[in-house]
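Expect chain and fold; thus:
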Amino acid sequence: MTASPVDTRADVVRAAKELETLLHCQIATASDLSLLRHSISRPSESVGIYKHLCRPYDTPFCSRLRASFSELESLSKIFSFARDATSQLGEWCADQVWKDALTEEESLKAERKVERMFFRDQENRPIELLNKELARLREVKNIVRHWKFGPPTIEGNSLSPKVLLLHQYLALTFEKPTDAKCIIFVKRRKTARLLLKLLGQIGSSHMRPDLLIGSNLGDCGDVKISFRQQVITLMKFTKGEVNCLIATSIAEEGLDIPDCNLVIRFDLYDTLIQYIQSRGRARHANSKYLHMVEEDNKAHFQAVNDVRSGEQVMRKFCEALPADRLLQGNEAKLETALLKEKAEQKYTDPETGATLTYASSLVVLAHFVSCLPHGSDTTQQVVYTMSVENKQFVCEVILPENSPLHSATGPPASRKSTAKQSAAFEACIILRKRGYLDKHLLSTYHIQLPHMRNALLALNTKKSNEYKMRIKPKLWAETRGLRPERLYMTVLQLESPENLGRSCHPLALLTRTRLPKFPAFPLFLHADKTSNVLCESLPASFEVDVPMMAELTEFTHRIYNDVFNKIYEVDEAVMSYWLAPVIPGWMHYITKRNPKILVDWATVKFVHQNQEEFIWTPKTPHNKLLHRFVVDRFLGSRRFYSEAVETTLRPRDPIPEGSVRNKNKNFRKDILDHSVSLWSNSRKSQVFHEDQPVIRMYQIPTRRNFLDKMTEDDKKDDDKDQTMCYVCPEPLRFSALPISVVSMAYLFPSIIHRLESYLITLEACDLLGLSIKPELALEAMTKDSDNTDEHKAEQVHLQRGMGKNYERLEFIGDCFLKMATSIPLFSSNPDDSEFEFHVKRMVMICNKNLLKTALDLKIYEYIRTKGFLRRTWNPQGMKQLAGKDWNKPLEETDKHHLGDKSVADVCEALIGAALLSPNKVGEVANMDMAVQAVSTLVSSEHHNVTKWADYYPLYKKPRYQLAQATASQLDLAMQVEMIHDYHFKYPRLLRSAFVHPSCTFAAEKIPCYQRLEFLGDSLLDMASINFLFHRHPDKDPQWLTEHKMAMVSNKFLAALSVKLGFHKHLRSSTTVIEHQNRQYIAELEDAEREAKGARDYWMNTKQPPKNLSDIVEAYIGAVFVDSEFNYKEVERFFDAHIRWFFEDMFIYDTFANNHPTTYLHKVMELSFGCINYRLMASELPAVVPGGPVTSIAVVMIHDQIICEGQASSGKNAKVKASQNALKLVKGISSREFKHHYGCDCEGNTKQWVGQDGGRMEMVGTAI
């Protein structure tokens, strides 16, 4: 039976009927009230009378403060409560009011309230008034901080008679160790806090007091209690860890309070309900209930009598109920019990007729928020904040961070409920106008978001298309057609020629136009010998006449014929380039203006004059046979360097041991037989001299790709002991080319292939208007396998010798693309929310958009996907007359297959290459060219700048940034400047970086940190990746990505926020956030203390609140904006506060390896030795048209799908699939794995047998 009808102090029966009507219920009670005594024990009640309380007065300390600061409106409530406390609690408690109300945290709260009131009721008042009041507040805080508060005493006026009586009762109860439990009821939260402090000093050692008050946040000096803390306190009270609760009305009802022995009403009840409910807490046997009343206080005694008489009235009412104990009739009309609903605004959709009212808007908005995507560890909720303006309530509704609408404010209303509904109504109207609510007032967010989120390709399907591929640069074709009159020279030489093992002559590459400056690149000459190729492009040209051109043409053709066994039609007009030897010591003459003098014309003329083949005759002296380049007359692939005449051997002698033998086993009878490469029928027509000499020669290996490291077979062929042979000279011809020229000419196809690759990719850069370094241009456009983008996977169809692929450049280019597109979005869209930023940026940087641009520009033609093949190499433009594949047409383009994602990745790699191609010596990055690359490849109206300096003019300073800063905001800037040496020109911009989204805009007319956090996130990503990229030049993108996650993780940034003290300046409107932060900070401090200087101490904590990491990113964004988009300030912050943690990145290997996908790779490759596995993801179509799209990922082992994972994105689906796969393979041995999945990656799988010799059957697997 409820006591509320009695509390109405009107006709009880009428009040009960109205209550039944309002609640649509009926009141019942026990048929025999005396029976309740047997199940519910009732405490014995007594009245404790304390002496007269003195009138409220100011303590000496309070008098001093009032004399100086009585005009401060923000202190009026503190003055009032402290004055009342002298009467109710005593002087000691009154002074403690000031100590509690003006702590560092409470002072900040007071200052915020003053600022909020000032901006709400500003009415053009000068900001100096606010600054003056804030300065006065700080003056009071300093006085309180330095005041010496003495301990409480039971003599004099230190404690009031009321408190002394309470102390006497508690001293008796807890005089000795006891199981007794006590609840002290007070009216005010501050009273409870003061009593807790007091009892902590004068209470018994056997008393363990604690607070139980509501979770609502009160005024300054009020204690913050969360619901979780309430539950914990009650658990402690149940277990006896706490035996004395000082509680407000929250302990009267609503919570399950354990039975206790003693209930003390320190402050009397106001209603019968309070009396009955607080008395009901004393349900323990022999429990006591104490009414504390003042001596001769008629109001107190009347209150005790009223509740007792009211209880009698209620008892009589119950006894007068009908026999069935039910109250009959329902005469009261609902209209008389309820107020008519106020005529409020409505919105009706003209097409469907769906109606939005004030009342329904709460439900519509809640449903919309529930549709927002969120992780399993977060809860989406709407926050309503209330303020008072002109004696009316104004409500602002704040939506979650990932909502397209951040907040909305309703019109003033006389009731809080109406104000709340009006705010929800305004939010729904805005969402409907922007298209986030459909014509049925249902959320369209889940329809729009996947479309925008997946404004990328369905790339996980590995879709590919066939495209043209350039195999020769356009430069050759553009310059051919006429006999040249002038030539440019590029000198080709080895940096370490001694590693070739033979004399080597630099070659001049002569072209019609000057070639660009090429970087040095390595050639793999022998198994353990390499050398860089140096290419010196000379700026001046030289004139060539007809005889000179004839000599150069003959020399070049002689190389093609003798060295490569290919004969071309002689036509100077169609030749792309010529080759010529360079004089020794040419470097000394490089400063001469005429490069003509650098050509070794004597060697050129000698070759020109000896066009006829030199063949041995009996008259040939031995010295003409030595140290010559020799070619088999009948089989051009057999080539030799002659070493010496072996006078002890004769043509018909057996072939010496260790000599290279003819591949045809039928012709190995003797040295002469071995020397002739003709087949049986051809040999019959040939007669050779029996007395010719035998020459020891070195047979040149057939290895042709010097751009790649030697294979094991290549190493065998390259062994000089394995390539020594003894041959007779008559079947051979001796070339006029010197060995030093030939040894360099053998390298030429590999060299010119690399140079042509440089030229082709530079042509792509010219197409984009970018001056990228040749080595970076080639790296950005090199795809050396079918699955280049699958890091750490076994490469499929690997093309050897192509050099670096685009992976690393794509990694840093992707990051710069994210930052570069974030800046103009932030600058040009001041009204957009963080959500809208993300959507617009996603549309710009998505792979679909990059692919479209790449297809429009035909970038696919310039991508390099095929390695060098000597057999298919030919100089462009010349007609081949003889040699291998002489009858095949020479094409300028080829075909290759490219995945859509690969083409998009190349675009990002080009951005990375542009960034790493500085214009000036000493520069690390070329931001201007990277910005230009982004504009070209993104091709969006949101990014049309051409250099970094174009970004800042896009930014129009908002009003809040330009407004005059308050003293509090200036003080914030000063405190933060002491942490990081940067002076803010706009302190209000800095304040925005610390305003949590839960705060209302009306508080300081400053937006929350979400926009700055969006910008700062991309800036910090760039600084972190730039650090990793340059510090670890040999690490692949997978490693870089995994370790970058540590640098930008919420865990690290939250720890950094605490280390810098940023958390102290965070402004939020909910105690939950502050409580979560305090818990995390305490845990972090313990972790740092236990780590004893270890830099990775932050890893040893639970996941922190996200707001701590957000304010670090927001601060970086604020610094960037305040410094007029000076990126060096971002790097300076990184170097000052972040770099130290990551000087040794290898200590974070554990952090990186904990990622499920990374861990799966390591388990498969290291634990099981399996390389035939794949992790793939793709999108599933929506089951319901317009519904959300789901991504699915699968793990395949040896073409068998073992598990899957589904999520809203491919990335998260891969994580779930990896987690499921790890569960399957956890705990099984390598042998079990191989048996179950048929894995033979480390060799043939052995049959697995049990101890009995039979096949072991596997039971209980999850396959």
Notes: Residues 980 and 1136 are 8 Å apart (CA to CA). The chain has 44 helices and 29 strands.
